[in-house]
Amino acid sequence: MDSTKHLELSREQLYERVWTVPTTQVAAELGISDVALAKRCKKLNVPKPSPGYWAKIAAGRPPCKRPLPPTPSELFIQAAEKKLKRSLSLPETTEPLHPLATELLHQLTAAKPDWEKRNSVCLGTLPEVRVTKALIDRAARCFHVVLNHVEPLGILFAKSQGTYNSGYFNRGRDRLYLKIEEEPGAREEAIRRTSWPGSRDHPVGCGKLTFSLAADRYAFREAKKWKEGDKSTLGQTLSLIVTEIRRHYVEELKRRAQAAVEHEKWRIESERLHREYIQREAIRQEAERQQRHAEALKATAQARTDDLLKAAEWWQLHQSGVAFLAECERRWRSVQAGELTTDQLTWLNWATETVKSMSPFEVGYPDPASDGAFDLAAVPLGGPYPTKRDFQRPPTMPKIPPPVQKV
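The chain above was modelled as a monomer; its predicted structure follows.
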């Protein structure tokens, strides 16, 4: 059985399975050990029945089924989707602020006003803020309210790694930047549109805050913005901001969960396709082995047949050579009164050895046990294959052309 089958079960499916049949049976069905199943349940936070659970069921006293506890992600979504108050109140002046809000207050107070009489802060540990001196305390308390409503959910304000970047809200790997600015006044806006201000005594700011949220530090032009105005109080605006931060991370968590599901489906499908490929490749290789085996058997049988024909041809050459040498000796003796010269004897000795080597019997051919037919079924796949002589083709034996294939 496929040992990866247990990985295809979702958390809910695994929970239903272990509470339907004993875990030993579930482990056997999935092709894993009891220990591996226990580790899988622990990793997914899936409760298992107690050791006496199935005995009580068999005795007719079914115990209570432990519910499947929610995951940390589910707990976060439940808490983040709780409806907030329509308006969030700023803390009293006597109430201690969040440490980061206190740091923001100190940094804004210590900052020097720019030409528009605004105090600015852009530090790695704080959000980007630019307000007039009159709104410094208000901006810090707004930051305090936002922090107190998102930090309990695990949405923390993290320090930026860059020198010139502001801090950001962070949960997991997703960032969310906050910017707090003071809206320009009507006269200030008019001066901005006309020319560079010649005097710094003109009124600045309108006394109202603008909040921006962006997933990228350099994309605040496309950021979501909330303006404190006549139709929405500052408390209502803060409620909308906190709701948006929560909604952002809920959506991001759901998106990542869906991406994880899609990735898991892709992984399972990829593993299935890989297993099918391995099976097809094994079948193909086995077919090639069978084909090579059949060709090797055919070549061995054909070689033994060729050896027989070559041996017969060499035997004819040997017989012809013996007869030729006997005729040579007879003629020389008849001419020379029965005596042969030294050169003739030397040549006859050489020729006799040469003709003798042409006989297949000199090499022990034929041996019925190793030169004849053989049982094809008895030869194991891949060899070893029966021996063959591979005689040299006799010079008088023509080469047989290969058969012509019909098109």
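The mean pLDDT is 87.
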